[in-house]
Amino acid sequence: MTAVLLLLNGVGLLSFWLSVEFSTPTIQLASEIQQGHSENIVCNIPRLKVRDSTSPHRNISLSRGPDVLSSNNNKSSLEYSFVADLQKDDRTEIICEASVQVGSEVLRKQTRRVLNVVASPFNVSISANRERYKTNENIKVTCNATGKPFPEFSWHLPSTEGVEFSDNNRTIEISSAQSSHNGTYLCLANNIYGKKSARVDIVFEESTHSWIAAVVVVTLLAVLITAGVVLYRCQK
Ligand SMILES: *[C@@H]1O[C@H](CO)[C@@H](O)[C@H](O)[C@H]1NC(C)=O
Ligand SMILES: *[C@@H]1O[C@H](CO)[C@@H](O)[C@H](O)[C@H]1NC(C)=O
Ligand SMILES: *[C@@H]1O[C@H](CO)[C@@H](O)[C@H](O)[C@H]1NC(C)=O
Ligand SMILES: *[C@@H]1O[C@H](CO)[C@@H](O)[C@H](O)[C@H]1NC(C)=O
Ligand SMILES: *[C@@H]1O[C@H](CO)[C@@H](O)[C@H](O)[C@H]1NC(C)=O
Ligand SMILES: *[C@@H]1O[C@H](CO)[C@@H](O)[C@H](O)[C@H]1NC(C)=O
């Protein structure tokens, strides 16, 4: 008797499960999401059928960690739009969860995806140890930027003479600068998605000390000569 009941129960359950077609939700998104661009995520239950009803009660939601980004009650799909941000979105995991009501039971299925955000170079900055220099002083200029993939750096310089490149071209150094090094220093950051530059003017200054010294010496000489001439004349 119990065996028969169990069997009937089993058959009932089996036919119940056979009458439910509920596929795992899918997530559609660009394989490469660009920083600053508007992007779409579509979450969808491709196949859903419960006991001959093609529209049983169901929900779909998209979340990231504890935040629900979007949800749609009694719908089979949802669309979420956002402006991608490298720092905020890259490598974060999103979860699309679908649930379906079958009698008193709620079935749930979910899919996870990790966002891959790429970015052309941005936040390019340039800094120099000095913006005015005198002969034989040293000049050091450093460039920085963000981007994914991480940018490569190159330079446009007033003169490449005596210039040393280091730190993967992020830094240039001139240990003994000359007047030819006066001008605009431009750093260019680039990757496959784009490029961006930053610049700084570094100005050569004649050494004021030697100027003053020269003026003083010339004046002193003039005074001495005049004095000498006057004395010589007076003695005559
Ligand atoms: C859910 O949607 C289906 C059609 O898509 C409709 O037949 C059903 O009544 C809805 N259920 C509720 C609770 O709104
Ligand atoms: C769908 O969402 C509504 C409101 O959030 C909830 O009352 C209902 O139980 C959910 N249905 C399923 C099948 O999860
Ligand atoms: C650049 O850096 C600043 C400060 O770190 C930040 O607030 C900003 O969002 C960054 N991005 C761009 C595109 O400027
Ligand atoms: C370069 O910039 C990045 C991001 O803006 C920052 O995390 C990093 O510390 C900077 N590096 C240097 C050497 O300033
Ligand atoms: C470093 O910058 C110089 C000057 O722009 C460039 O000629 C050189 O190719 C760069 N080197 C690398 C490794 O990017
Ligand atoms: C030095 O460079 C600046 C621009 O950075 C330019 O305006 C100036 O004329 C230059 N001076 C000399 C002496 O070349």
Automatic annotation (TrEMBL):
Top-level taxonomic group: Eukaryota
PROSITE patterns: IG_LIKE
RNA-binding recorded as keyword: no
Start and end residues of each Ig-like domain: 121-203
Pfam family, one: Ig_3
Signal keyword on record: yes
GO MF annotation terms: integrin binding
Spans through the membrane: 211-232
InterPro entries, sorted: ICAM_VCAM (IPR047012), Ig-like_dom (IPR007110), Ig-like_dom_sf (IPR036179), Ig-like_fold (IPR013783), Ig_sub (IPR003599), Ig_sub2 (IPR003598)
Biological processes per GO annotation: cell adhesion
Keyword set, alphabetical order: Membrane, Signal, Transmembrane, Transmembrane helix
Signal peptide region: 1-22
Name of protein: Cell adhesion molecule 4-like isoform X3
Organism whose genome encodes this protein: Pogona vitticeps
